Amino acid sequence: MGGEVVGISVDAPGQNRKLVVTHGLEFLLLSDPNLEAIDLFGVRHKGASLSGDDIARPATFVLDREGRVAWRQLTDNLRIRLRPETVLAELKKIP
Q: Structural domain of residue 79, as residue ranges?
């Protein structure tokens, strides 16, 4: 469908590489330790890490071809994960 999956994490690149290898992730996982992209998307979760640092709130965004947010799903619950069918249905809505 022409979409691409990208993850963004506050973790350092080395930590993200380990996560990619450990879990066999097949998508790009970007590092945002200064929370710049996380703030642009409005998903900073203040004090939510185990050490009390700010992290990203679990969220999924579908962007259109111009980079605008066409759909999003936000949650505070780390256990809530979208089904692929849900994201594919949203992708189909983009002209």
A: 6-92
**Is 62 part of a structural domain of the chain?**
yes
Give me the percent of the chain exceeding a pLDDT of 90.
75
User: In this predicted structure, what is the pLDDT of residue 2?
Assistant: 78
Q: Is residue 30 a contact partner of residue 13, using CB atoms and an 8 Å limit?
A: no
In a domain, 1, yes or no: no
- Gap between the Cα atoms of 47 and 53, Å rounded: 5
Contacts of 33 (CB under 8 A, 6+ apart): 10, 11, 12
Q: How many domains does the chain have?
A: 1
pTM: predicted TM-score of the whole model, two decimal places: 0.81
> Is the model's pLDDT at 3 over the cut of 90?
no
